[in-house]
């Protein structure tokens, strides 16, 4: 949600700055933010109990290390020795890795809401111009993500409060299936089709 809002604002306010289009600036700023977070990780990540990160001393107290080291000894965990090419290649011998990779790929690619903005981008006005600006292509999916957030909190919250899972799983699945039917049928009404997309956020 934050990324979409930021990209929408960047594409609008930086359009034409230094001869670059707004969407290019969105990529540049996102890249700078990514590099910044990666560099901060070198400072914030604590390391291992037996090999703490020296840059994390400003928040990692000696007593914290003692607690971590005692826990590793208590459960009998061997000290970290790093990774070698041999141990890296050995990971590919386990069928669990391949099964997880396939299942993850199928699961992440089956959600239509990932392509909502592509449908929005395809819409045209009667004169052939694009119906939505680059900024709106970033803003409209945010509404779906907000709906998804609220829906997940409600589903999980009431499920825990009532101590039951099945009714909420069935409701969740029913909403998802209904949204998929709408998206497959593709009604002539653009508004009805839009409802199908937003319903998919709820059931995704």
UniProtKB/TrEMBL annotation:
It comes from Penicillium canescens. Signal peptide: none annotated. Gene3D superfamilies: MFS general substrate transporter like domains (1.20.1250.20). It comes from the Eukaryota. The chain crosses the membrane at residues 23-45, 94-112, 132-154, 166-185. This is Major facilitator superfamily (MFS) profile domain-containing protein. The keyword Ribosomal protein does not apply. Keywords: Membrane, Transmembrane, Transmembrane helix, Transport. It is found in: Membrane. GO terms for molecular function: transmembrane transporter activity. One of its GO terms (cellular component) is membrane. Pfam families: MFS_1 (PF07690). InterPro entries: MFS, MFS_trans_sf. It is a multi-pass membrane protein.
